[in-house]
Amino acid sequence: TVRDPYSHRLLTDLGMEVPLLLCTATWAGRYYGLSKTSDEYVAIVPPDPRSIHPPSVGLHTRKDVEQFVQGRVFNLARGFEQTGKKPVVVCHTYGEVGLFQELFPTFCSNDPVAMLRFYSRCETVVSARLHACLPAYGLGVKRVVSVPIDTRGSAASHFGISEVHLQDLSYDTVQAALE
Predict the structure, then answer these.
(1) DSSP per-residue letters across 90-153
(2) pTM (2 decimals)?
(3) Crossing angle, helix 112-119 and helix 130-139, to 10 degrees?
Protein backbone atom coordinates (compact mmCIF):
# COMPACT_ATOMS: atom_id res chain seq x y z
CA THR A 1 0.00 0.00 0.00
CA VAL A 2 0.97 3.65 -0.37
CA ARG A 3 -0.29 6.71 1.45
CA ASP A 4 0.19 9.53 -1.03
CA PRO A 5 -1.10 10.11 -4.57
CA TYR A 6 2.39 10.75 -5.97
CA SER A 7 3.72 7.33 -4.98
CA HIS A 8 0.45 5.78 -6.11
CA ARG A 9 0.70 7.38 -9.56
CA LEU A 10 4.38 6.41 -9.93
CA LEU A 11 3.76 2.77 -9.07
CA THR A 12 0.59 2.62 -11.16
CA ASP A 13 2.51 4.06 -14.13
CA LEU A 14 5.04 1.26 -13.62
CA GLY A 15 2.20 -1.25 -13.96
CA MET A 16 1.81 -2.13 -10.30
CA GLU A 17 -1.59 -2.39 -8.64
CA VAL A 18 -1.13 -0.68 -5.29
CA PRO A 19 -3.97 0.40 -2.98
CA LEU A 20 -3.94 4.00 -1.80
CA LEU A 21 -4.80 4.14 1.90
CA LEU A 22 -4.77 6.77 4.59
CA CYS A 23 -1.85 6.58 6.98
CA THR A 24 -2.66 4.58 10.11
CA ALA A 25 -2.22 7.78 12.13
CA THR A 26 -5.77 8.54 10.97
CA TRP A 27 -7.10 5.82 13.25
CA ALA A 28 -4.75 6.37 16.20
CA GLY A 29 -7.51 8.01 18.26
CA ARG A 30 -9.74 4.99 17.81
CA TYR A 31 -6.89 2.67 18.86
CA TYR A 32 -6.61 4.60 22.15
CA GLY A 33 -10.37 4.77 22.62
CA LEU A 34 -10.52 8.52 22.00
CA SER A 35 -13.07 10.57 20.08
CA LYS A 36 -13.95 14.22 19.63
CA THR A 37 -14.90 15.79 22.96
CA SER A 38 -15.29 19.55 22.38
CA ASP A 39 -14.70 22.58 20.16
CA GLU A 40 -12.63 24.42 22.76
CA TYR A 41 -9.55 25.26 20.66
CA VAL A 42 -8.24 26.09 17.21
CA ALA A 43 -4.97 24.25 16.69
CA ILE A 44 -2.39 25.94 14.49
CA VAL A 45 0.41 23.49 13.73
CA PRO A 46 3.21 25.33 11.95
CA PRO A 47 6.02 23.70 10.06
CA ASP A 48 9.35 23.52 11.81
CA PRO A 49 11.15 26.41 10.07
CA ARG A 50 14.36 24.34 10.13
CA SER A 51 12.71 21.92 7.68
CA ILE A 52 12.10 24.61 5.05
CA HIS A 53 14.80 25.40 2.52
CA PRO A 54 14.76 29.24 2.31
CA PRO A 55 14.69 29.50 -1.53
CA SER A 56 11.63 27.20 -1.64
CA VAL A 57 9.60 30.07 -0.14
CA GLY A 58 11.51 32.86 -1.91
CA LEU A 59 13.73 33.71 1.07
CA HIS A 60 17.48 33.81 1.71
CA THR A 61 18.23 32.78 5.30
CA ARG A 62 16.91 30.51 8.05
CA LYS A 63 16.15 33.63 10.11
CA ASP A 64 14.02 34.93 7.22
CA VAL A 65 12.12 31.60 7.22
CA GLU A 66 11.56 31.78 11.00
CA GLN A 67 10.16 35.30 10.70
CA PHE A 68 8.04 34.30 7.70
CA VAL A 69 6.50 31.34 9.55
CA GLN A 70 5.98 33.43 12.70
CA GLY A 71 4.19 36.06 10.63
CA ARG A 72 1.87 33.50 9.03
CA VAL A 73 1.08 31.97 12.41
CA PHE A 74 0.50 35.40 13.96
CA ASN A 75 -1.93 36.41 11.19
CA LEU A 76 -3.81 33.15 11.44
CA ALA A 77 -4.01 33.10 15.24
CA ARG A 78 -5.02 36.77 15.43
CA GLY A 79 -7.81 36.18 12.90
CA PHE A 80 -9.24 33.32 14.94
CA GLU A 81 -8.82 35.28 18.15
CA GLN A 82 -10.76 38.22 16.71
CA THR A 83 -13.72 35.92 16.08
CA GLY A 84 -13.76 34.76 19.71
CA LYS A 85 -11.87 31.50 19.17
CA LYS A 86 -8.99 30.21 21.31
CA PRO A 87 -6.00 29.60 19.04
CA VAL A 88 -3.18 27.43 20.35
CA VAL A 89 0.06 26.93 18.48
CA VAL A 90 0.84 23.22 18.59
CA CYS A 91 4.51 22.34 18.26
CA HIS A 92 5.56 18.78 17.51
CA THR A 93 9.11 19.39 18.79
CA TYR A 94 10.25 21.36 21.80
CA GLY A 95 12.75 23.20 19.59
CA GLU A 96 9.86 25.07 17.95
CA VAL A 97 8.18 26.30 21.13
CA GLY A 98 10.50 29.28 21.61
CA LEU A 99 9.51 30.68 18.22
CA PHE A 100 5.85 30.93 19.18
CA GLN A 101 5.34 30.95 22.96
CA GLU A 102 5.57 34.72 23.24
CA LEU A 103 2.97 35.22 20.50
CA PHE A 104 0.19 32.86 21.60
CA PRO A 105 -0.42 29.95 23.94
CA THR A 106 1.51 26.86 22.85
CA PHE A 107 1.10 23.14 23.40
CA CYS A 108 3.85 20.57 22.92
CA SER A 109 4.15 17.00 24.10
CA ASN A 110 6.23 13.93 23.32
CA ASP A 111 3.25 11.81 24.35
CA PRO A 112 1.15 10.84 21.31
CA VAL A 113 -1.94 10.19 23.45
CA ALA A 114 -1.67 13.69 24.95
CA MET A 115 -1.48 15.10 21.41
CA LEU A 116 -4.56 13.10 20.38
CA ARG A 117 -6.46 14.27 23.46
CA PHE A 118 -5.62 17.85 22.59
CA TYR A 119 -6.79 17.46 18.98
CA SER A 120 -10.03 15.88 20.25
CA ARG A 121 -10.78 19.24 21.88
CA CYS A 122 -10.36 21.28 18.68
CA GLU A 123 -12.99 22.84 16.47
CA THR A 124 -10.43 23.54 13.75
CA VAL A 125 -6.95 22.21 12.97
CA VAL A 126 -4.73 24.08 10.50
CA SER A 127 -1.57 22.06 10.10
CA ALA A 128 1.65 21.92 8.14
CA ARG A 129 2.14 18.43 9.55
CA LEU A 130 0.37 15.52 7.94
CA HIS A 131 0.50 13.67 11.27
CA ALA A 132 -1.68 16.32 12.85
CA CYS A 133 -4.19 16.59 9.99
CA LEU A 134 -4.86 12.88 9.75
CA PRO A 135 -5.36 12.10 13.47
CA ALA A 136 -7.58 15.20 13.87
CA TYR A 137 -9.63 14.08 10.87
CA GLY A 138 -9.84 10.57 12.29
CA LEU A 139 -11.00 11.92 15.66
CA GLY A 140 -13.91 13.67 13.94
CA VAL A 141 -12.63 17.24 13.66
CA LYS A 142 -14.68 18.55 10.72
CA ARG A 143 -12.64 21.68 10.04
CA VAL A 144 -9.15 20.52 9.03
CA VAL A 145 -6.85 22.37 6.65
CA SER A 146 -3.53 20.99 5.46
CA VAL A 147 -0.63 23.37 4.81
CA PRO A 148 1.65 21.08 2.82
CA ILE A 149 5.33 21.95 2.62
CA ASP A 150 6.22 18.79 0.66
CA THR A 151 4.53 16.10 -1.42
CA ARG A 152 3.85 13.98 1.66
CA GLY A 153 1.73 16.77 3.15
CA SER A 154 -0.32 16.93 -0.03
CA ALA A 155 -1.60 13.41 0.68
CA ALA A 156 -4.28 14.86 2.99
CA SER A 157 -6.04 16.60 0.09
CA HIS A 158 -6.55 13.26 -1.66
CA PHE A 159 -8.89 12.29 1.17
CA GLY A 160 -10.97 15.48 1.14
CA ILE A 161 -8.96 17.62 3.55
CA SER A 162 -8.72 21.21 2.30
CA GLU A 163 -5.31 22.60 1.43
CA VAL A 164 -3.71 26.05 1.62
CA HIS A 165 -0.05 26.49 0.67
CA LEU A 166 2.28 28.15 3.16
CA GLN A 167 2.98 31.13 0.90
CA ASP A 168 -0.79 31.81 0.75
CA LEU A 169 -1.58 31.05 4.40
CA SER A 170 -3.76 33.64 6.14
CA TYR A 171 -6.94 33.69 8.17
CA ASP A 172 -8.91 34.59 5.03
CA THR A 173 -7.47 31.79 2.86
CA VAL A 174 -8.15 29.24 5.61
CA GLN A 175 -11.75 30.43 5.94
CA ALA A 176 -12.19 30.18 2.16
CA ALA A 177 -10.77 26.63 2.20
CA LEU A 178 -13.21 25.65 4.95
CA GLU A 179 -16.29 26.89 3.09
Answers:
(1) EESSHHHHHHHTTTS-EEE-S-HHHHHHHHTTEEEEEES-HHHHHHHHHHT-SEEEE--SSTTG
(2) 0.89
(3) 60
